Amino acid sequence: MPAIITLTRHIIEEQRKHPHATGEFTDLMNDVAFAAKLISYHTNKAGLMGVLGEAGTTNVQGEKVKNLDVFAHETMFKALDHGGHLCVMASEEEENAMEIPEQFPVGKYVILYDPLDGSSNIDANVSVGTIFSIYRRVSPDGRPGTLEDLLQPGHRQICAGYVVYGSSTMLVYTTGNGVHGFTLDPSYGEFVLSHPNIKTPKKGKIYSVNESNFDYWDQPLKNYISYVKQIDEASGRPLNSRYIGSMVSDFHRNLLYGGVYLYPANKQAPNGKLRLGYEANPLAFIVEQAGGRASDGKTRILDIKPKELHQRTPLFIGSETDVKMIEEFITGKKQQ
Ligand code: AHG
Ligand code: MN
Ligand code: MN
Fold first, then answer.
1. Which atom of ligand 1 is nearest to the CA of 212?
2. Which atom belonging to ligand 1 lies closest to the Cα atom of 247?
3. Closest residue (by CA) to atom 19 of ligand 1?
4. Contact of 184 with 190, CB cutoff 8 Å
């Protein structure tokens, strides 16, 4: 009988390769996985809450059922606040850095997260996700973490991952030693290794972008999008267009099939829409570990030094050849 590799076992075995590992990181990841299971469970019920109308808007404690964004945000925070592994957190749903409540000890790690990515899709039963990014603190131990801990460049991440709440729930993570995917078996509630050592194709067949922004784009990007639609068998064009509008889901599909996801700057959003700390950086770490590439068109995402918590960045991420081609268009080396 083949062994079932659970997420916990996988992390323990990865940690054993590090001579100084204390097990703290394993505990932290278990807390993340627990939050993911809770969010998965509630995401699956979201439609039902709508059907149930008023009855669905109040829970047994008489509290209003919260919007799933807020639910996911609070679930992550509460799953992670007491373990003693973190010194500070940041979330898309909270403007400022979030301190560890004073009754709990602080630890050496830092986490940033997007609790629910693609939340505009939730009422239509379309896949959404959670994204997280973990660093080691840079401020002195034993005290609350600082903004400096949260504003580290992405290449300093020690772990990044995402969860897709799709037709099944999957957790994908890297600690810098390849990318590994786990599927939640709902019958016994464990994440089980289903996609070991994911590698993304060097050249993809898919491009994913919100093309309704076309008129707001700069000319180089318009040129690239025209280029991918031209017929040229030798270079595999036209590419196929796929856009869910949940970046985690678009990214996950492209990671497995090969392709590129674009959220460029545009005239209305000069730095693009997506956030560096908890959207671009974690997916950039993952894509590089899978053999792909991520840039803002000119600079490697993981080399950008963040200046603020909710900083935005243009993002081009996916198969290496395709991202390089976008960079050639954006830097003007290629026009058509
Ligand atoms: P979030 O739901 O966390 O706010 O993120 C939404 C993001 C991303 O998931 C998605 O790909 C993108 O916004 C879609 O934006 P457009 O509707 O502008 O295409
Ligand atoms: Mn998001
Ligand atoms: Mn979100």
1. 19
2. 11
3. 210
4. yes
- CATH number at 236 reads 3.40.190.80
Residue of minimum CA distance from atom 14 in ligand 1: 245
Q: Does residue 55 or residue 59 have the better pLDDT?
A: 59
Give how many domains the chain has, as a whole number.
Answer: 2
Structural domain range at position 268: 206-331
Residue 244 alpha carbon, nearest atom of ligand 1: 11
Q: Mean pLDDT over residues 113-141, rounded?
A: 94
Is residue 5 very low, low, confident or very high in pLDDT (cuts 50, 70, 90)?
very high
Q: What tokens appear for 2 in the block?
A: 């083949």
What pLDDT was estimated at residue 18? 82
Higher pLDDT, 54 or 267: 267
Of 195, 215, 230, the domain-final residue: 195
User: Does any domain span residue 201?
Assistant: no
Centre of ligand 2 from the C-alpha of residue 119, in Å = 8
Residues 300, 174, single domain; the answer is: no
Report the predicted TM-score, pTM, of the whole model to 2 decimal places.
0.95
Q: Are residues 181 and 266 in the same domain?
A: no
pLDDT at 51: 53
Domain boundary residue among 161, 195, 229? 195
Segments of the chain assigned E as strands: 86-91, 98-99, 109-117, 128-136, 159-165, 169-174, 179-185, 190-195, 206-208, 240-241, 259-263, 293-295, 315-318
